[in-house]
Amino acid sequence: MSNLALGVSPFVAVLGDERHEIYEWFARQGTVHRIETAKGADWLVTGYAEARQLLTDPRLIKGGWEHGLWARKLPEGVARGLYMHMLNSDPPAHTRLRRLLLPSFARRKVDLLAPRVRQIADRLLTAADRGGTVDLLTMYAYPLPINVICELIGVPEEDRADFRAWTAPIMSPAFHSFEEYAEAATALLGYSRRLIEKRRGNLGDDLLSDLLAAQDDGDALAEDELTSMIFLLIIAGHETTVNLIGNGVRALLSHPDQLGLIRHRPELLDSAIEELLRYDGPMQNTPTYRTAAPIEIGGKVIPADSRVYVTLMAANRDPRRFPDGHRLDVTRGEAGHLAFGHGIHYCVGAPLARLEGRVALGTLFDRFPDVHLAVPADEVIRTPSLVMNSLTALPVRLRRDEA
Questions:
Q1: CA geometry: angle 224, 230, 236, nearest 5 deg
Q2: Per-residue pLDDT tens for 56-89?
Q3: Contact 11, 35 (CB under 8 A)
Q4: pLDDT for residue 400 is more than 90
Q5: Domain that residue 37 falls in
Q6: Domain with 175 in it: what CATH number?
Q7: pLDDT at site 32
Q8: Residues 252, 262: contact at Cβ < 8 Å?
């Protein structure tokens, strides 16, 4: 058994690539691991084949809205309004929600957003171009997705400052008290309900209008499901994209040969996004799953009612699936990574995240061909987390003459 409370934990490994090194150590010991954390005995699954197998096993469940963060401490009406989304649901509820939501995230609809995402990216880069060292995370990677989300759900410009203020404790609950989280979540829920009520009588061409109109054989989304979808867009659709942009820029700036390939062959950008998702993806682990029955996998038996985390970072570098997986190669040209999960909980917003990643990186490197890290890559600090793989900051200089 690995006791993370006493040893080195990937969840608090924050310097450079040491988090990857710890997961590689786990992977060398096997593909399924029982670990001791502050919550008790949990399980990590680090093998690629085992991860795919487990993520399609019906005995691995979410358990419903009651298992949302602090769900039992929040008033039930608040918890239901936040956590009745797909990420907390199991079939048949999950099947119904996904059927109603999927048309709103169809690739053809998402691609229509590209010009607007590019406008937002250009505006943010213009504001960041002040000379000297810039934190690209604060100035670019963070505000771009939140602005896209506000556009998607129709949050008016004058309300976006409040909207952004609420997102900080919601997206980084480990760094805020329960009281701060509850205050922000309750405020967001109240705003979401008012926005839904306003939109019901005046449908437009935004995502919220699509969700209000979504029906299947007379079935429609209830209000708690609509507000939960807004909440899910923020916690899943925002932070994962922030991390894709931040981790991707760091990886390319520390591998100038790979960045040079993209600059000389722009058609490689799509392939590069897939490789960056694999190489240093937005998430360390899936959010918590539970076992409804014992599961035998990887030579181990995970007992019933166990907490399980599928380690996407390790699976995406499993040498049995990705030879030389520790090496960044934008010409790798193969999909199959698990950065967006697998099975019924595969990220419905993946097309939007890919679009934002392509536009964000393409626009940055087009406008600032000499952008470079202001500190060594191994001095860039990551955020402690069990699930996310985030940077705390990304100091860059946009122009070479600023060195």
A1: 120
A2: 999 999 999 988 888 889 999 999 999 999 999 9
A3: no
A4: no
A5: 2-402
A6: 1.10.630.10
A7: 96
A8: yes
